[in-house]
Amino acid sequence: MVRERYGESGIRIVFGDGIDEATHETVRRFFLHFRSLRVPGVIDIIPSFRTCLIHFDNGRVRYEELCERIDSAGTEWQEMTLPDARRLEVPVRYGGDYGPDMDFVCSYSGLSPEEVIEVHTAPVYRVYAVGFMPGFPYLGPVDRRLYVPRQATPVLKVPRGSVGIAQLQTGIYPFESPAGWRIIGRTMVRLFDPATPPHSILSFGDTVRFVRI
Amino acid sequence: MITILNPAFLSLIVDDGRFGYGDIGVPPSSGLDRFALNMARFILGNPENAPVLEIMGNGLSLLFSESVTFAVTGARVKAVLGDVTVEPWSAVRVPKGSVLKVPEVLEGFRYYVGFSGTLEVEPVMGSYTTNLECRFGGFRGRPLMKGDVLTLRDMCEPAGFQAIPDELIPPMKEPHILRVLPGPEADRFTPASVKFLSHRDEALFFRASARLNRTGIRLEGPAVEFRDRVEQSIISEGTLPGTVQVPADGQPIINCVERTIGGYARLGTVIDADLDKLAHIRPFDRVILSVTDREEACRLSQARKDSIAFSIKKQ
User: Fold this and answer.
1) pTM of the entire structure?
2) Mutation test of the interface with chain A: which of B213, B240, B274, choosing the one with the most A Cβ atoms within 10 A?
3) Does ipTM top 0.90?
């Protein structure tokens, strides 16, 4: 674990080098532990694949104090038992109008649409981060056979619920938005609801399986 | 009540930001010029974090159907009530039926209008601010439109502090000099293309692209070059407002207030004391990046706070 200051009001803690389950579990442990401390002056905690970014108000808490809070926890949190990951099934309609980039994915991967769907629905994916926009899950890892590059220029608008893949990741756009990933399907599940807690259907550490409908 | 006769180019309800939901990707969406925002509230006696209007462009026109005090802060604008010019950064009391117009923005980009009462909007996830992309918060999750009616509650009286002294109003003219602290991936760039990071008398010169909004400000200029054989993107992770990211084309993007996670290499982070300037970068403005260190950043921040406290005490 390496911690470094990020600008004036951030602390970036790095738990590993790559995208893997062990690193993810360490980040998740730390995130759940640190959040439970409710340290005054901490504005936000952003966990992701291999880091946690702590955003703090440097008028309310000093950087050194926060570092002490982080270090004084020692390794206790590393032994904490993680709550079971929630499992969710997300129904998806693949191809056609729902997946405008299916043709591209097929020609890039050499797979038929049927095979793309099979490969995409086979794994149980992990939510490695939620971001880009509220409720957008970064899911992985995607089977190597489905590797596709991002769009060179993002598409200006994809509908809410669009399911995309890019660079061994897959994700769902919770709102109509610009998109840089290749869209292969769409779900009717509403991923984010600003009016009702917990707001995001998916949270950091959950697992997801896509189901073809 | 306040009726929007003309919302100018873009009028939004903003506050200090929506925080505490970084783990589910909810960005701050805060008002970009925090000083201007706070001074509008201060002049009017608004409570902390009260919602205020953030406006871009010429042509704003508001009809007051009750007697109210308002203040315009942020960008230097020409503001009028009929034929009478209104002093910006000041409390202005108007009778029922008055129309405030802002025909022209003179210096800077975004301006703020606050009122002697709290705008009646429901907080969403702890904040009044508008998340424009996802259409929640603020006024029905959208920009104000012609014919919209805003209501004020808890009418307050300005607390005697009627105007912000001129010396406290920062210049908003271009070129905008942004001082940065080096970011986590600063060493991925060639020393020649980011000379400014190691030499204080060096700087990088850009022009803001026309593609700028509350999500990000794209800069155009000499490309920041990646070293050979380094990864040009990163495994997506948390970023903060003011983070300067560099995509593969070498043209930096300054992260504003609508993203929590980024996937580009991070050259640096704009220091706190310069963050409000992001509100006033207009398309094609010159933007200069220079480097500073943490002590200096902290000193600048503190100096600014002290001068504000001093001027306010003096009045």
Assistant:
1) 0.95
2) B240
3) yes
